[in-house]
Amino acid sequence: VVCLQSYVRRWLAQEAVEQLKKERTRRLAWFEMQDRRCKEEKEEQLRDRRNRWMNPQSTEDFSLLYHALESRPESNGWGLVYPVQSAAPHQWESANGRLLEMDTAEDIRARELEELYNEISLYTVDKQQRLTFLKKLKNNVKVYKKPSELKHNMFFCHGCHRYLCSADFGSCASGRRSHWCRNCTRLDNIARSRDEDSVYKSILRRLRSDEHRLKTEATIPFLLQVSTAFTLCM
C-alpha cells in the first residue's frame, strides 16, 4: 500500500508540474501577445495622428493640429513666440521621415522686420548707409496722413469694435478678409475650448473588442460613449 501510494503521489506531482508548465507557457504567450498588440496599436495611433496632422478634415483633426502647434518648443509659457523664433518657418516631420517647412505671411513679415531691426542696430556704417536703412524703416512703418488715403485702408473689427489698419486683419480660408483682427483671433483661439479625445476613442474601442471576445452577449461596453469614457478617465 505504501509503495502504491508513493507511485500515485509521484504521478499526481508530475501532473501538477505539467499543468503549471502549461499555465506558465500560456501566460507568457499571453503577455507576449499583449505587448505585441500594444506596440501595433501605438504604431497605428501614430500613423493615424500623422495622417490627421497632414490632412485635417474634421473639427477634431483641427483641434489636434492646434494642440500640436500649442506644444511647439519655440513657445514660451504664455503661448507667445519670441521675436527671433517667430521669423523661423513652421517645421514638422512627415510620415516618411522628411522634414517639411512652411512659411506663412506672418513668418515672412517677421523675417523682414527682423532683417530691418538688425540693419538699424548696426553702428559701424557710414552716413549714406544709415540714411538708406532709415528710409527703408520709414517705408515699412509709414502712416497715412491724408484722410482720403486713410479711409480706404481702415476696417472695423467685430471683436474689439475698433477701426484698424488692413494689415491688422488676416484672411479666411475662402480668401476674403476676416471680420476679426489678428489680436481678437489669437485671443479667441486661446480661450476656445478644444477637446482632443482620440486617445479615449481608442481606449473605448479596445474595451469593446476585449469584452466582445470574452462574452459575445456583452452590451454594457457598447452603451458607453466617448464623453463618458473621458469623464471616467479624468
TrEMBL record:
<protein>
    <recommendedName>
        <fullName>IQ motif and ubiquitin-like domain-containing protein</fullName>
    </recommendedName>
</protein>
<dbReference type="InterPro" id="IPR057887">
    <property type="entry name" value="IQUB_helical"/>
</dbReference>
<dbReference type="Pfam" id="PF25805">
    <property type="entry name" value="IQUB"/>
</dbReference>
<dbReference type="InterPro" id="IPR037695">
    <property type="entry name" value="IQUB"/>
</dbReference>
<feature type="domain" description="IQ motif and ubiquitin-like">
    <location>
        <begin position="86"/>
        <end position="145"/>
    </location>
</feature>
